[in-house]
Amino acid sequence: MGIFGRRKKRQEQERGAAEGIDLGGGTRLVLDASPAEIRQLTQQFRAGAEGGDAGSMERLAMFLEYQGNLAEAIEWRERAAGLGEVDAATWLADRLLKQNKHAEAVEYLRIAARGGHISCAYNLGMILATSNQPEEAAKWLLRAAEAGHEGAGKALNTDAGRIRAMREAVAQAVARAEQGDAAAAHEAAIGYLELLEEEPAEHWMAVGAERGNADCAWELALRERERGARARSLELLRIAAGGGHARAAAIEGLWLLADGDEEGAEASLRPLADAGNWVARYNLLAVIQHRAGVQPGAPSGMTDEMWELLDRAWVGARQAVAPLIEAGNWEEAESLLRIPAEGGDPAAQEALAEVLLSSGDPRRAPEAEALRRRAQALRGARPAAKPSGRGASGRDAALPMFSAEQGRDFRDLVRESFASYDVTVTVRGEVATDTQGRQFGLSELARACAERPGGRAEWPDEVNLQVGQLLMAFSGPLGVERLSRDELLPALYPMLVADETLPETYERAGEGIGPEVLPGLREQIALNSREGVHTLSAEGIAGLGEIGQVRARARANLVASMGVDEYEVLQHPGGGVFHVITGSTPFIASLVLVLEDLVRATTGQPIPPDGALVAMPARHQLLFHPIRDVTVLTAMDGIARYAEATHARSTGALSPDVHWWRDGRLTTLTGRDGDGFVLWDEDGEFTAMLERLDQVNRKPRG
After folding, report:
1. Matching CATH topology for 21-156 and 162-291+302-373?
2. Which of 41, 54, 381, 496 is the one with CA 20 to 30 A from 652?
3. Alpha-carbon span 227 to 250, nearest angstrom
């Protein structure tokens, strides 16, 4: 690698190519002076060099080299380069590069690049890029590209015009910031960071922070913390928090804890956690665990208070990560989920495992499996919910965003709110049922309450508001009196419900609840309107026609508009794939009722003769695997783990088990024991099928 363009080339003159000194890049210097004149100039430059003038040092070195005294010339160039002399540094770098001494050349390249030598900036950037120093490499390549170096522009996929436009935008932001605009100060800081110029970026961060800009204060707080300036970093963090920066408010407690101030940490975090800040909840959990000597993520030592705080934190984290996952932004979703996952949240660990598998990179599978094992160990260490008593701990079985006590309080509020409208309801699980047989799903209302920033104090207002809207929208038996038959039929869908969520007094064999799909799961007819999703009573269905025809119409509606938001095909690390269907409606699991249509629509093939594995962990999700070969076993393992994780953290939970679909019939294949899921095959048919597939797999081919 040589450096070009340092001096103008001079063509070989009459003295021949062997004469003169090599300046690099094919350029040779020939002095048209007498020996006496050369000695005089050498003495003149030596006097200046000995007086400390860097330019004289470089000129002296050039004359010494011309006279054959290379060793002394190098010494003077090294001294000159140490004083920042660009030509001296360039000559030394060029010499070392020609000797393939790239590491030794780097410091001289830096000196020359700082002095504005464009080719040196480019060469320095390329060497650093191959030496695992990408940030500094980008800085020097950007400088070279801005000066018009084409190679640097190609390396950064930019050009001088774009960089000049960026600099102009920064200049405009600086002008506004100088007039007192705090937001413009942040804009200027970001612009300088994009130009890889740290000093001016930090200057404008400080200016913006002084004027109360939360983003500037946050960025500068992180930098000061990294430098060890704890008092200054906390001061800036409080400015950011006061300006509304959510993460700044939540991180202060963690910094105080790291500084040994447990009381200050809790005092900072507790109000934010009570107000619904999910990051603050995780950080408060870290404070409580530290005080109790519990290692975050350890499967022992967790108290009821810690588990409840963990569950409340996950409600907010899940809400924050859901849009990222929906948009397929796996990188940001992974970054966000690592916060709670590394803090020991099993739900976050399971969600992170799903994100890693969804990235499509098979190299992430081992980490995903490790996360699932950690989550399983944590869940296994969690004490079971107490069966009764106002002080019982544990999670609410139907509404897992609540503790058992919170679930009871929530249902009491729901009953009281309906009663204020002269409507008597029975509340069980996630469903409220009135005396007319109308049913009202409570999962969305429960989630809204759990996420209220003011905590339980705000629940009554939220419950009264939504109950009033429900009753106003559904006067009469679920709007049957309000809508015509022709309006109602296209809005009917089958919805799977778990028996445990139904009122004990409800006639399960009646036309309203429908047939049993599996033990503990039934098919119910629901009306999907813009006011929400609500189930029809037997009375409401009777007004629409014969029950079999109404049910067939509901299934036809489901086929016509499947409502799938996300379709994934996941690879099990041991081989075999399974399909995951997810949607925002509560009818996704119901697609198992029309599985043949779903499989053909998603895979382009019919279900094989041996059927398919399916799982319906929650109403918004369905998993399936068409059975074609012995990979059915690894697919079953993947489905079982995925379904168990989804079932544990979802509202609208249905079943954590894996089932065998054959010709429209479902048979449960898995159950649970102390060590995980086990295979149930009472009649031996599934085992016989596996043996047959194994024999086919063993047959020689060709």
Report:
1. yes
2. 381
3. 21
User: How confident is the model over 621-639, as a mean pLDDT?
Assistant: 90
- pLDDT in the model for residue 3: 38
Q: Which amino acid is at 242?
A: G
Mean pLDDT score of the chain, rounded to an integer? 80
Q: Please, which contacts does 674-678 make with residues 24 or more away whose CB atoms are closer than 8 Å? A: 676/376, 677/640, 677/644
For 97-152, how does the pLDDT look when each residue is reduced to its tens digit (9 = 90+)? Answer: 888 888 889 999 999 999 989 899 889 989 888 888 888 888 888 888 888 888 88
The mean pLDDT value for 245-269 works out to 79
pLDDT value at 18 more than 50: no
Structure confidence at residue 243 (pLDDT): 82
Nearest to 267 by CA among 256, 276, 278, 277: 256
DSSP code for 439:
E
State how far the Cα of 364 lies from the Cα of 665, in Å rounded to an integer: 36
pLDDT at residue 6, as a whole number: 37
Local confidence band at 179 (pLDDT 50, 70, 90 cut-offs): very high
* 3-class SS shares of the chain: helix, strand, coil, % to 5: 60, 10, 30
Distance in angstroms (rounded) separating the CA atoms of residues 542 and 313: 45
Nearest to 405 by CA among 262, 503, 307, 536: 307
Q: Tokens 């399960």 appear where?
A: 508
- Tokens standing for 74? 């190098």
In this structure, the strands spanning 439-441 and 431-434 are antiparallel
pLDDT exceeds cutoff 60 at 50: yes
Phi, psi of 75 (to 5 degrees): -60, -45
Q: Write the CB contacts of 55 (distance below 8 Å, at least 6 apart in sequence).
A: 48, 80, 85
- C-alpha separations of 617 from 347, 639, 641, 643, 653 in Å: 15, 10, 11, 5, 6
* DSSP-assigned letter for residue 277: -
Cα(579)–Cα(661) distance, rounded to whole angstroms?
14
| Structural element, H or E, at residue 86 | helix 86-98
3-state secondary structure of 518: strand
Q: In the prediction, which pLDDT does 634 show? A: 86
Residue whose entry in the numeric block shows the structure tokens 């009281």: 416
pTM of the model: 0.42
| Listed residue (19, 28, 24, 21) closest to 5, CA to CA | 24
For the domain made up of 21-156, the CATH class stated in words is mainly alpha
Q: Beta-strand (E) ranges in 449-571?
A: 492-498, 516-518, 521-529, 532-535, 566-571
494 burial via Cβ count (<10 Å: 0-12, 13-18, 19+): buried
**pLDDT at residue 41, rounded to an integer:** 85
Are the beta carbons of 663 and 641 closer than 8 angstroms? no
Q: Which residues contact 230 (CB under 8 A, 6 or more apart)?
A: 255, 259
**For residue 384, is pLDDT > 60?**
no
Classify 162-291+302-373 by CATH class.
Answer: mainly alpha
Distance CA 66, CA 368 (A): 67
Distance between CA atoms of residues 317 and 129, nearest Å: 37
Q: Among positive and negative, which fits the CA dihedral 185, 187, 193, 197?
A: negative
**Scanning the structure block, which residue is given the tokens 């400088």?**
143
Q: Rounded to an integer, what distance in angstroms lies between the CA atom of residue 365 and that of residue 353?
A: 8
* The three-state (H, E, C) secondary structure of 303-372, written as one string: CHHHHHHHHHHHHHHHHHHHHHHHCCCHHHHHHHHHHHHHCCCHHHHHHHHHHHHHCCCHHHHHHHHHHH
**Domain map (residue ranges) of the chain:** 21-156, 162-291+302-373, 399-473, 477-561, 566-698
Of the candidates 398, 305, 312, 383, the one whose C-alpha atom is nearest the C-alpha of residue 347 is 312
